[in-house]
Write a structure and sequence with these properties.
CATH architecture: Roll
Radius of gyration: 14 Å
CATH topology: Nuclear Transport Factor 2, Chain: A
Distance between the termini: 40 Å
Order of helices and strands: HHEEHHEEEE
Strand content: 35-45%
Helix content: 10-25%
Number of domains: 1
Structural class: alpha+beta
Number of helices: 4
Strand order of the largest sheet: 2-1-6-5-4-3
CATH class: Alpha Beta
Number of strands: 6
Largest sheet: 6 strands, mixed
Mean pLDDT: 94
């Protein structure tokens, strides 16, 4: 069941569907982004905050997609590997490999921690 959870989560990201994403996370879900001023990136906690944070990727890259996804689950932990691709409003293409680490509680995502490659120009 948890593998299906990660597949549905990835599909919701590609559909740019914040409501579907929020239906797959706990009320107190923690999202740690790939960048930010803290050692863990930027941390967002709770569905209310996630409702604002998740769409930021689609605002920066209106055609954002996470491709070539591979998911696996062991116990209450899960991993997704993917290739992100998106074009910003200035026409700049971003394409990087990345990984999400998940903690799963009662069939929902309780924590999502994102890592991605940093490509140099």
């Amino acid at each position: 069941m948890s593998l299906l959870l990660l597949e549905n989560f990835a599909s919701a990201w590609n559909a740019h569907d914040v409501e579907a994403l929020l239906n797959l996370v706990t009320d107190d879900c923690i999202f740690e982004s790939a960048s930010g001023s803290d050692v863990h990136g930027h941390r967002t906690v709770g569905k209310m905050a996630l409702r604002q944070a998740f769409p930021a990727a689609w605002q920066k890259w209106p055609d954002a997609r996470w491709l070539d996804a591979c998911h696996w689950v062991s116990g209450h932990r899960g991993v997704s590997e993917w290739t992100f691709t998106g074009t910003d409003k200035d026409g700049n293409l971003t394409e990087v490999r990345g990984v999400d680490l998940f903690e799963i509680e009662n069939g929902l995502i309780a924590r999502k921690d994102t890592y991605r490659k940093n490509r140099t120009p």
